[in-house]
Amino acid sequence: MSRPRGPEMVNGFTGASLAAQPPHIRELLIRRGKVLGPGYQLFYTNPVEVVRGDGVHLYDSTGNEYLDAYNNVVSLGHCHPAVVEAVTRQLSKLTTNTRYLQADLLDFSERLLATFPAELDRVTYTCTGSEANDLALRIARAHTGNTGIIVTRNAYHGVTAEVAAFSPSLGPSSPLGPHVRTISAPDPLRHGTSVVADLRTEIRAAIDDLQRHGFGVCALVVDSIFSSDGMQPVPTDLLGVLAAEVRAAGGVYLADEVQAGFGRTGTGWWGFGRHEVVPDLVTLGKPMGNGIPVAAAVLRNEVGREFGRKVRYFNTFGGSNVPIAAAAAVLGTIEAEGLIDNAHEIGAQLKRGFARIASDHPHLADVRGAGLFLGIEVTAPESTEPDRVLAQSLVDDLREHFVLVSASGPHGNVIKIRPPLVFDAADAALLLERFADSAARVLPT
């Protein structure tokens, strides 16, 4: 059976409910445990077997239809025809690597870079967001000559050995590197109006400590929506303040856009744009290929100059034809279907609806988010004390009623809602209806 990674696992199958699973599911779980390597996880107390996807829906082997309000890997929805057609066409034509001249790679790169501020004028391709963050740190080290990294206290940035060393959300069994320092994420529910001043003080202390220990300051690495820290969209003047402190100490600001990018926040292509600050490096991942592995590091030319002078970089599949065809289809569809505006409009509909529901339930302490990236904080009533157990009960009840969401945050008590960008008004209305029903069933009165 699947085993948990540790006590920090959020919304995962632990094996405790194995005996209660239907025979077919139990058999699959036992087979999975016998052949897959260590560390794999499944969502939900009662795992979901999926056999097909279409748009914003997933289907299990008995034909049940689930409203998928969580998957941003398929940013355009499951099996989007534009991506299917582009990949199929390219597979029948050519797939090779970046050591050959290919116009399609350049065409897409020019289109992608046009969505960024002019200062960010170079792109290097990888297969995953983890690889992109790994590469970006190598570039930053070559540029700054330093090794110290600053991240938020429950950040997640990837699974390579290098990147896991600055991904504290992986838990105590995955220790941070000695060159890593953590600061708090913004949390207005608990910090109040002093959050910018408090975090400026924290980052100055982290910078001083890195310098005292001989690491210097290489980079501040921040997910632009603070997803693993519980989805914290405000204050929007914070990242500029933190970036200025790090740059003054000789480091760079790396915006991790793996989750917040490609229009997700509904106010432009990239999450950092909400904060009115231009990063030195940006990393892209999950939503870029709508399920085809493709990712990238975007950077200022001058930041990459020293790395390029000293290092020969090559990635067999990063930037190869099929992933680039998928990424081009994603980019084109976001533009053609107006999906950034859609994220803004449908996100606002959801935020208003969840706020109405929360007004009837004191356990729902905060509704926050930007675009189609929302968090609902579950606490003890009239309190800021996190209630992870109740949050998990909500997630599980929604799953039993064919709606898929998850949970996040350092205490696992924030309902994480992150549907495909093609979510429409009817999908949002159904999600709100079923969430209201679940809240009435699960939350104490």
Automatic annotation (TrEMBL):
It holds the Pfam family Aminotran_3. The keyword Transferase applies. Gene3D superfamilies: Aspartate Aminotransferase, domain 1, Type I PLP-dependent aspartate aminotransferase-like (Major domain). Keywords: Aminotransferase, Antibiotic biosynthesis, Pyridoxal phosphate, Transferase. GO terms for molecular function: pyridoxal phosphate binding; transaminase activity. GO terms for biological process: antibiotic biosynthetic process. Belongs to the class-III pyridoxal-phosphate-dependent aminotransferase family. This is Aminotransferase class-III. It comes from Amycolatopsis azurea DSM 43854.
